[in-house]
TrEMBL record:
Keyword RNA-binding: no
Record domain Aminotransferase class I/classII large: where: 74-439
Official protein name in the record: Aminotransferase class I/classII large domain-containing protein
One annotated GO biological process: systemic acquired resistance, salicylic acid mediated signaling pathway
InterPro entries per the UniProt record, alphabetical: Aminotransferase_I/II_large, DapL/ALD1, PyrdxlP-dep_Trfase, PyrdxlP-dep_Trfase_major, PyrdxlP-dep_Trfase_small
PANTHER family: AMINOTRANSFERASE
Co-factor requirement: pyridoxal 5'-phosphate
Length: 445
């Protein structure tokens, strides 16, 4: 738009109910940022107490760098983002499907919203050992997106329960949906009224006391856990499924870190627990399996046996959501997913996971040697360090300023995370080694 027309439109605009645009003309320049439209802000957005955690960490890191331009390079043990290249066989799958798009025979446009049939079948057989059926698998662009879409399906009338601390997406998306009330003076610090917070800490071995947990409609449960690194045992998951059955609740089981489980007997999927198909949805993703954080491919299992109170299969509504606001995962990327599940791909995934688990061991041993009590870091890529009552944001800043290492303050995962620091094992090995040296130098002083 030509600037003069833009100014004229802005000055003439004064529709009913609209807030008059605040325009400022500085010389010939209009400051567009000062213009407000007449649309009311979604009040649920205003209920969010802070920006999303990970961009906030990035903001603080950049602020440090701006204030200390001569700083040695910062090492990130922060956001759980993969760093190792995609292995050869899996990459071949991506390349192959990209190349097919350049041929008349191989070209494809929109695909099925639920994902390519072969990939759904392969996920069911290779990752779930036939415990679930291909039509119960919904392929997507990642589990974070699926959690948001699940909230849309559940709507604003449900009560959600979360582990405290937990991956922030469960709470933030519940707030955005309108499941919570505004924070008031009676609200416990850091909580949203309307959410059931299930304390998970060393005193209960990071598994909630279900006998004292109020009923919730939807319970988000993550194992191996982000951020605590705790994995739930078969007995614990059996208790969870029984609790959901007794209360008529739905479990949303987040298994994004399942391949990190190497201990025999620890379930990788909620469907290893008898009866789970009547009460549980599982979200999962290739992000951490195969370094697909940027590639984007995940899946959600909605068993046919899972039904809402009126008897409607949850699967039907999930299918409706996916068909309406999702247009299918990228055809290129699904080729990569198929390669992940070939024997060679599974072998490559196992090697990648072992690499990150070795990093986790290094971080855990270093922090233990420095006298900290440490949780997680075995069967999980996260190390949860007990700060002995110190503030986690203070410790985050102290480590950034002294060792130039980025960590994540536990408080960012909910009030129950205060007093802990999360370290991620997804950095390259050399960076992990150097971070351990820097932390040792810092804490040994
Ligand atoms: C517990 C948990 N669930 C889901 C996700 C999101 O994964 P995706 O990349 O599939 O969106 C993450 C990402 O870090 C996570 O930690």
């Amino acid at each position: 738009m030509v600037l003069s027309t833009f100014i004229a439109v802005a000055i003439a605009w004064s529709g009913p109910g609209m807030r008059a645009p605040v325009s400022r003309v500085a010389g010939a320049q209009m400051v567009a940022a000062d213009i407000a439209v007449g649309v009311k802000r979604n009040p649920n957005m205003a209920k969010l107490q802070a920006g999303y955690l990970f961009p906030e960490i990035g903001r603080r890191r950049n602020a440090y760098l701006a204030a200390h331009p001569d700083s040695r390079p910062i090492i990130s043990l922060g956001i759980g983002d993969t760093t190792q290249p995609i292995p050869t066989h899996i990459l071949g799958g991506l390349e192959g499907s990209a190349k097919r798009l350049g041929t008349k025979e191989g070209y494809s446009g929109y695909g099925a919203e639920q994902g390519v049939g072969d990939l759904r079948a392969k996920i069911a057989s290779k990752l779930y050992n036939g415990l679930i059926e291909p039509e119960e698998v919904f392929v997507s662009d990642g589990s974070k997106c699926d959690i948001g879409r699940l909230q849309l399906m559940f709507g604003n009338a449900v009560v959600s329960a979360v582990q405290d601390p937990s991956y922030p997406v469960y709470v933030d998306s519940a707030v955005m949906m309108g499941q919570t009330r505004p924070v008031d003076s009676a609200t416990p610090q850091g909580q949203h009224p309307g959410i059931v917070y299930m304390a998970c800490n060393p005193s209960n071995n990071f598994f909630p006391d279900l006998s004292n947990t109020p009923r919730a409609d939807v319970i988000y449960f993550c194992s191996p856990n982000n951020p605590t690194g705790a994995t739930a045992s078969r007995e614990q998951l059996t208790q969870l499924v029984q609790w959901a059955k007794k209360n008529g609740s739905i479990i949303v089981f987040d298994a994004a870190y399942a391949p990190f489980i190497k201990s025999a007997g620890t379930p990788k999927s909620i469907y290893e627990i008898p009866g789970a198909k009547e009460v549980a949805i599982e979200v999962n993703s290739f992000s951490k399996y195969a370094g697909f954080t940027g590639v984007r491919l995940g899946w959600t299992i909605v068993p046919s046996a899972l039904k809402f109170a009126d008897g409607t299969p949850v699967r039907n509504d999930w299918n409706r959501v996916m068909c309406t606001i999702f247009n299918g995962a990228s055809n290129i990327v699904q080729g990569g997913g198929l390669a992940c599940l070939d024997d060679e791909g599974l072998e490559e995934i196992s090697t990648l996971i072992d690499y990150y688990l070795d990093n986790a061991k290094l971080l855990r041993e270093t922090m233990e040697a420095l006298g900290f009590t440490v949780h997680g870091g075995a069967d999980a890529p996260y190390i949860f360090v007990d700060l002995k009552g110190k503030s986690s944001w203070d410790m985050f800043s102290h480590i950034l300023e002294t060792a130039q290492v980025v960590t994540i303050p536990g408080a960012g995962f909910g009030p129950g995370g205060e007093g802990f620091l999360r370290l991620s094992a997804f950095a390259p090995r050399a960076a992990c080694v150097e971070a351990c040296e820097r932390l040792t130098a810092m804490f040994k002083q």
